[in-house]
Amino acid sequence: MREGPILTISFDAQRQLYVSTEEVLQAFMLERVAARHGICITSRQLWEAAHLSYVGLPIAQLPNYLDMTAKQRWAVLQRGIPTSATNNELLDYVEAFQNVAQQQYQRKGYVDLRIDAQTSAADVRGLLHLLQSLNINRYNLKVERV
């Protein structure tokens, strides 16, 4: 078994990406990504963010989402983290996670990929290429039907 921080990247058949990690790292990771995009997140919002099961919204929408009640959040359809050429937030999340993991654990974090079995091989290759651009060549891969 591996010891250390793990970032789980979930990828569904609709090409939507979601990230999650342990509470403290998730808050620090979100804080860094928000700062990089010029988004202000309050300490209360960071506490809320740390307790999310996963993050699946563009960072610009996250502060409003975190201000909602739990009941209101259930009604929000999360469309995944952007990975376009002009706004690739997934790379920002992975990079922020690695930096925070290094600070908190003095080691790089691990990446787990959780992929829907209906996802096309071409889409999976695209995700792997994105990760390789950050020199992440080792990860655990879990494929499942959702």
Structure description:
By secondary structure, the protein is an alpha/beta fold. The chain has one domain. The chain contains six helices and four strands; from the N terminus they run E-E-H-H-H-H-H-E-H-E. Strand 3, helix 6 and strand 4 form a beta-alpha-beta unit. The radius of gyration is 15 Å and the shape is globular. The model has no long low-confidence stretch (mean pLDDT 92).
Question: What are the SSEs and their pairings?
Answer:
Elements: E1 6-11, E2 17-20, H1 23-36, H2 43-50, H3 62-67, H4 70-74, H5 89-105, E3 110-116, H6 121-132, E4 140-144
Parallel strand pairs: 1-3, 3-4
Antiparallel strand pairs: 1-2
Helix pairs in contact: 1-2, 1-5
Neighbour order of strands in the largest sheet: 2-1-3-4
C-alpha termini separation: 25 Å
Averaged pLDDT: 92
Number of domains: 1
Radius of gyration: 15 Å
Question: How many helices?
Answer: 6
Helix content: 40-55%
The helix-and-strand class reads: alpha/beta
Order of helices and strands: EEHHHHHEHE
Low-pLDDT windows of residues: none
Short description:
The chain is of the alpha/beta class and 146 residues long. It contains 6 helices and 4 strands.
